[in-house]
């Protein structure tokens, strides 16, 4: 194992990275009599609450020539710039009641993510800063945890290689990991194309080569209609009726495998399988033999992979899983993907309550974690995961198998 | 909608009633009450209802269930990718709640014809509420020949009925999910 390569991890925040200069909003502010501050602020919060600027303090206090000077934000001024008449009537009332002289000011648009950023913001107008809510940054990761994360990323890149058919294309791969028990919960490859039958583990490929990557489902979600049939073997065709599926991207298959594992480990109540016996309803998909077989096939593949590399730590079986240990969906679990997921996969990971997402390569076509959309920043969603990108030197990406060896244990 | 004939509206209501039937089936099974039907040439060819609790897979929304039955059926009779794509383009989906971001992307990937939905989905909606994936995001998602596919989307069809089912569901409580999957708001026109 080479210890000299430089892998890096970058947090991908919910808001786009931007300099303070562009991430400000214009507000209308005014100096006020300190004695009247309470009264005015109370009225302002009723007339014009600053819903999307909760991190911004309504009142700024400065000391000018030994005297405290208070200013208050009246309202946003962006939309009123050209039309002073458009200022809310209540604000007009306040201005005339207290003889205020409004002026334009700028405040930070987003809550600060670091102390440095916060200090920078406060030069404009004071904001509040809560370091405790910013724990999802890279700073919270220990050196040991980082090594584990990098190792899992190597595992998933290796899985991508397992899918390499020697016939031009690679597929995306995903593994779902319980970071506490260090167990691999599920793994999967893209299954949008006919499943390859041979693996070329020693293959070298360039993940940035667009031809090689054309089969990566999330990179090219709309490309399934143009898939070549060439890699479909005749034996495969007879064994399984479900040889391709435009929506079976690696992340979705991994979620399905994790759910399957959950049902097997914890067959208790909550699996309302018996209640949902199809009653004029379409036969449920999990019962179809083709899918069963696929899961088994996949388990075999992973077993093979484990034998080859013995990197995946197995938890001893003497502990019977109990209902208490049963996780709710994938709460607390991490997922590793080679390519940034598309909106379908990224939303699926919200639904399944994944805790953290790690990916290596951006997806400029359809990426939902910063490239095109940024689901981790969609406030309306009921769950938010943290997103990290792992920067891997190109030579490592192309030759990862050289760096994965038997003495490289995940629990080391 | 403005030019729609009374006959079309009646047909749409009839299909939405079938989707609501699926949603009621889900409710009976303690699932989030969302249901759908897929229609080709005026005939229902597939139906689905939410199965997230039974499968412990939160991606098993009604749309995904119905889509999977079709993909399986069509592959069974030997259709290839381009034929399946052609089939989907002639299909309409009737679903009781606006498709979420995941399902809206899936429908765009498949190239569905039209989508009719009941109530809007304020928190997860991918057809206008949170993101607008049905509009093919022509500026956002288009590179070379990877054109995202758009589909026509009409909301507000029997939304009161869809919302009422959600109310029932949250009143009866979901023993399997600590948090609701498809929060609901009162229906609004989705123009």
Question: What's the SSE pattern of chain B?
Answer: HEEHHHEHEEH
Strand arrangement within the widest β-sheet of chain B reads 2-1-3-4-5
| Mean of residue pLDDT values of chain B | 87
The tally of structural domains of chain B comes to: 1
CATH domain fold name of the domain at 1-19 and 133-196 and 214-220 and 246-265 and 326-401 in chain A: Cytidine Deaminase, domain 2
**Major β-sheet annotation of chain B:** 5 strands, mixed
Radius of gyration of chain A: 27 Å
**Oligomeric state of the chains present here:** heterodimer
Largest interface: A-B, 62 and 67 residues
Mean pLDDT of chain A: 75
Percent in helix of chain A:
25-40%
Level-2 CATH architecture of the domain at 1-19 and 133-196 and 214-220 and 246-265 and 326-401 in chain A? 3-Layer(aba) Sandwich
Protein name (chain A): CMP/dCMP-type deaminase domain-containing protein
GO molecular function, one term (chain A): metal ion binding
Family (chain A): Belongs to the cytidine and deoxycytidylate deaminase family. ADAT3 subfamily.
Region (Disordered) (chain A): 263-283
Topology, element by element:
The complex is a heterodimer of chains A (412) and B (191).
Chain A: E1 8-11, E2 24-32, H1 37-47, E3 59-64, E4 67-76, H2 89-97, E5 103-108, H3 115-124, H4 143-162, E6 173-178, E7 183-189, H5 234-239, H6 250-265, H7 289-309, E8 334-339, H8 343-351, E9 356-361, E10 386-391, H9 394-398
Parallel strand pairs in A: 8-9, 9-10
Antiparallel strand pairs in A: 1-10, 2-4, 2-5, 3-4, 6-7, 6-8
Chain B: H1 6-28, E1 35-40, E2 43-49, H2 52-55, H3 62-76, H4 81-89, E3 91-97, H5 101-110, E4 114-119, E5 152-154, H6 159-172
Parallel strand pairs in B: 3-4, 4-5
Antiparallel strand pairs in B: 1-2, 1-3
Structure write-up:
Chain B: Residues 10-129 form the CMP/dCMP-type deaminase domain. Chain B: GO terms for molecular function: tRNA-specific adenosine-34 deaminase activity; zinc ion binding. Chain B: Keywords: Hydrolase, Metal-binding, Zinc. The complex is a heterodimer of chains A (412) and B (191). Chain A has 412 residues and is α+β, with helices and mostly antiparallel strands. Among the domains of chain A are: 1-19 and 133-196 and 214-220 and 246-265 and 326-401, 3-Layer(aba) Sandwich (Cytidine Deaminase, domain 2), CATH 3.40.140; 24-109, Alpha-Beta Plaits (2-Layer Sandwich). Chain A has helices at residues 37-47, 89-97, 115-124, 143-162, 234-239, 250-265, 289-309, 343-351, 394-398; strands at 8-11, 24-32, 59-64, 67-76, 103-108, 173-178, 183-189, 334-339, 356-361, 386-391. In chain A, helix 6 runs parallel beside helix 8. Chain B has helices at residues 6-28, 52-55, 62-76, 81-89, 101-110, 159-172, and strands spanning 35-40, 43-49, 91-97, 114-119, 152-154. In chain B, strands 2-1-3-4-5 form a 5-stranded mixed sheet. Chains A and B meet through helix 6 and helix 8 of A and strand 2, helix 2, helix 3, helix 4 and helix 5 of B.
